[in-house]
Structures are given as structure tokens and as C-alpha cells.
Amino acid sequence: MSKSAVKISLDLLSNPLCEQDQDFLNMVTALDTAMKRMDAFNQEKVNQIQKTVIEPLKKFGSVFPSLNMAVKRREQALQDYRRLQAKVEKYEEKEKTGPVLAKLHQAREELRPVRDDFEAKNKQLLDEMPRFYSSRLDYFQPSFESLIRAQVVYYSEMHKIFGDLTQQLAQPGRPDEQWERENEARLSELRALSIVADD
Question: Which residue range or ranges hold the BAR domain (predicted)?
């Protein structure tokens, strides 16, 4: 929007009416200056929001692939653990013969490191996921505060810019009601022209 406002003010400056009427040129020049100030502050606000909100959000989002991989590794460890646990249970249900006992012992030995691996991965996720979840507010709060401050500064400056512009364009001793009546009279004259279509 600010880029469009700057374009409009530049187009008005290049309008031949500015060459014919010094008062109009002064008004358009004041508008152009205000629009350029508005655009500069808008760009400042965009840059600040980029640094303080968008980039931190991207960094926060980059954590999710690592979390997903940790969850997938835990799920894979759980599947391996269940598979070997089922194997142990199968041998425990069989008749206790020499070969079955040997296979049972071997299956239990295979199960131990897989169970330990699963329990370690599971414990890590159970410990870290709640901390990650609860820390998101601490992470985002400064970004949101910065966003609010950037908006407050921007709109305060816009108020000042347009207040200054209003002061520059105001004609002393001419109340707003009179200004509106004169503009309405000019519009009525234009509407009365035969080249203006009546819709």
C-alpha cells in the first residue's frame, strides 16, 4: 500500500496541473514527502518484523524434523522390542527342552539391549517433549512483544506524519464544513457537464 501511495504522489507531481498552480504543487509536494516518509517507516517495520518474528518462527519450525526423527527412532525401537519380546514369550510357552532353553536364553540376550535402547529413547522423549511444549511460550513471547512494539511505533509515526500533512494542507480560517461544501459544489458542477455520464 505504501508503494502505491508513493507511486500516486509521484504521478501527481508529474501532472501538468502542478506546473500551472503553485498551491497545488505545494500540496502534492507535501503529500509526496509524507508518502515517502510513510514508505520508509513501513520498510523499517517490515525489516523489524522479519528479524524479530519471521526468522525466529522459521528457526522454531526447523526443530520439528529433529523431533519427528526422534519419535520415529523411538517407534522403530518399540517395534524391535515388541518383536523380540514376542519371540521370548513364544519360547517361554514351549516345552522346556535343551534346544528351546538355549533359544530362550539367546532371545533374552538379544532382547536386553533392544529393551534398554527403547527405554532410553522413550525416557528421553517423555522428559524432553513436555519441556519443549511448555517452552514455546517463552520462545514466542519476545517475538510477539516485538511485533506489538513495531506496530505501535509504526502507527504512532503514521499519526505524526499525517498530522503534519494535515497541518501543511490546512488553510487558516477555513473550517472543515466549508471545505466540504466547496468540494461538494465543485463535484456538482462537474456532474452537470454534458460529458459526464449519469449512472
Answer: 1-178
**How far apart are the C-alpha atoms of 19 and 32, rounded to whole Å?**
16
Dihedral, CA of residue 63, residue 64, residue 66 and residue 68, to nearest 10: 170
Please list the ranges in the chain whose pLDDT falls under 70: 171-174, 196-199
Instruction: Indicate if the alpha-carbon torsion angle 136, 137, 138, 142 is positive or negative.
Output: positive
Q: Which of 52, 12, 43, 32 is nearest to 142 (CA)?
A: 52
Q: What is the pLDDT of residues 12-46, one digit of tens each?
A: 888 888 888 888 888 889 989 999 999 999 999 99
The cell for 122 is 522413550
Percent of the chain with pLDDT over 70: 96
* R_g of the chain computed on alpha carbons: 36
SS3 of residue 1 by DSSP? coil
Write down the pTM of the prediction. 0.59
